[in-house]
Amino acid sequence: MSIKGTGTITGPMEPLLSVAQVAEILGRSHWMLRRDIRAGRVAAVRIGRALMIQPAEVRRIMAEGLITGSASGTEPVSVTA
């Protein structure tokens, strides 16, 4: 499938994740994640009023160790490709 002006998309797209879902995966509060989005440390897209994050961005954050640990005491959940 090709989308005009944006290049080519290969294969199926992964569903976007909400801020709440990503915060749970990373073991962070959604407020801290929103602060990181606002500061430009985390890429997100706005769809209507919702902020959504690509699973690839979550994997990048985890790989680079930008947001680590578990503020809530739970182990972060892995996001598979």
Would you spell out the secondary-structure blueprint of this structure?
Layout (H helix, E strand, L loop, with lengths): L1 E2 L3 E2 L8 E2 H8 L3 H9 L6 E3 L2 E4 L1 H10 L17
Antiparallel strand pairs: 1-2, 3-5, 4-5
Helix pairs in contact: 1-2
Question: What this model shows, in words?
Answer:
The chain contains 3 helices and 5 strands, in the order E-E-E-H-H-E-E-H. With 81 residues, the chain is α+β, with helices and mostly antiparallel strands. The protein has a single domain, classed as Arc Repressor Mutant, subunit A. It has a 3-stranded antiparallel beta sheet. Strands 1-2 form a two-stranded antiparallel sheet. Strand 1 and strand 2 form a beta hairpin. Helix 1 packs across helix 2. The chain is globular, with a radius of gyration of 14 Å.
Overview in brief:
This protein is of the alpha+beta class and 81 residues long. It has one domain (12-81): Arc Repressor Mutant, subunit A.
The helicity comes to 25-40%
What's the CATH architecture name? Orthogonal Bundle
- The oligomeric state of the chains shown is single chain
Number of strands: 5
Instruction: Work out the radius of gyration.
Output: 14 Å
Main sheet: which strands, in order across? 3-5-4
Largest sheet: 3 strands, antiparallel
What's the level 1 CATH class? Answer: Mainly Alpha
Number of domains: 1
Structural class: alpha+beta
The CATH topology is Arc Repressor Mutant, subunit A
Strand content: 15-25%
Shape, per Cα inertia axes? globular
Average pLDDT across residues? 80
Give the low-pLDDT segments: 69-76
Distance between the termini: 19 Å
